[in-house]
Amino acid sequence: MDDRLITAIVVVVGVPGVLVGYIWGTEQVLRLFGGRMQPRIRPWLWLLPALGFLGVFLVYPTIGTILRSLQDKAGTEFVGLANYAWFFSNDNALSALKNNVLWVVFLTVFTVGIGLLISVLVDRVRYESVAKSVIFVPLAVSMVAAGVIWKFMYEYRPPGEVQIGTLNAALGAVGSGPVAFLQAQDFSMNTFALIAVMTWMWTGFAMVIISAALKAINPELLEAARMDGANEWQVFRGIIFPLLVPTLAVVSTTIVITALKAFDVVYTMTSGNLETDVIANLMIKQMFSFGDFGRASAIAVVLLLAIVPIMLFNIRQFRSQEAVR
Amino acid sequence: MTTAASTRPRGARPGWFARARGRVGVHAVLAILMIVWLLPTVGLLVNSFRQPAAVSASGWWEGLTPPYDLTLENYAHVLARNGIADAFINSLFITIPATVIPILVAAFAAYAFSWMEFRGRNLLFVVVVGLLVVPLQTTLIPILRLFASLGINGQFLAVWLAHTGYGLPFAIYLLRNYMGGLPREVFESAAIDGASPVTSFFRLALPMSVPVIAALAIFQFLFVWNDLLVSLIYIGAANPDNLPLTVNLANLVNSLGGGWQALGAAAFLSMALPLVVFFSLQRFFVRGIVGGSVKG
Fold it and tell me: Which CATH number fits domain B81-295: 3.30.1330.40, 3.30.530.20, 2.60.120.1440, 1.10.3720.10?
């Protein structure tokens, strides 16, 4: 138990102490330099811990991945772009790519749209914290649990049997036949069923961030507009929405990347079968089922390249933020 | 009705009827969304109190009508597991520093990105955000080798460091976006008054960013608390005494071979703490913390 006590002290006091001590120490170090050098060195001292962590845990493995994507299965020979050629000529990979496009578009539209709607609406009711908690709960559910929860939602039994799935029981109640949500491939219905699960989980994420930004808007601004006779829709369009744009950009970017990396839901619910596969799941299969780290790495690099347009959008976003402040 | 609204004289408030109708609409939309969002979880909650055989024989709503035939057996089964209390404490030991470290480190970086001038600032920032897309799975093997050579496999430290690395891009992104929106005058006048950047950071930037830090703390806490993969790989076999709750519960499911009903109980037990964290941090999401001094 003594060990645990020591760990607890380290956890609660030691860790924050070291970090705060570091940043306080930077000023002491900077005193050694001349006044002109200080502003040049200071930013790098503040960035140092972050760059250190990022370098070790993300940049270094990523460089390894890029190099590995140019090698064969065993990692003994360089094969040029062969792994990429495989990716773009393989039917499964292209189907996964198509599904990822659906994921990116619809997951983003659903989560950001509903998250924005909820944030704006709960701002004007007394049960705000209750409503937000309800939307937030799915985020607190682990992925494994979410898989079980939605198994009970989508569960399908052939017509005539007792339906124990919530949705099919509801369909039965209105006189419709049961639907095999996770098997039906018409209009990619099974992919949409999976996107619905992620929407359920991630709307709370969008809501929490959008709501935090909404709370930072000066209420006097809104009140002034209302006094001038603007209706609620005009207040939203003219004031709230423009002020939320930077936040919506951050949330959308994060969700787009989440959609690109979508994996757990697909893995736990359909294993990517029946045309529901996505790029990240394809990568895991190449790694652990086929042991082909060359192809797996190429897939990871494709993911990495897919965000270039989003990053360009973000640069523009930050430029305009610089301009107004 | 639309013409009536558009010809309303400036400065007049909408009539009580229009307002009441608007309020009913707001309540109705929120009620529908809340029901849709709650229903799946309620289903699992009810099933977690039902007999294992009943769960696969009939829908969860049967548990709400007589004969109820509910049981606490599933919860008793989960709580009686060996080492579950230790696993819970381990989860806390892992999650608290793995939440505090990335937020502080990200706050330093976000402050530098927002309020310090240096060459290559935008490019560096875009690279940092670009790292969001790196799939965690591709980093496991190189990092595992690194930890092994440092001899910290199986220790809490390994997981703290790894979660910090994985959590930083999003944390920096979110904090920089928020801090960058704080009003310039506040920092300029502080600098004129002779405040050092350290003072400005702790006295101004951090307190003004409380809502977004609360949001970030919640997400990072959840991410680490619910993480299975990182703990499994970096603590895993090296030191089973340090494994968190998620691993313990995953083993439960594996050992039962699809023990759905116990999994429902396990899911609710592991959800309890994240929800407490959410409720306790929710009070930071109220209007007025930044005193209306932030633009957007």
Answer: 1.10.3720.10
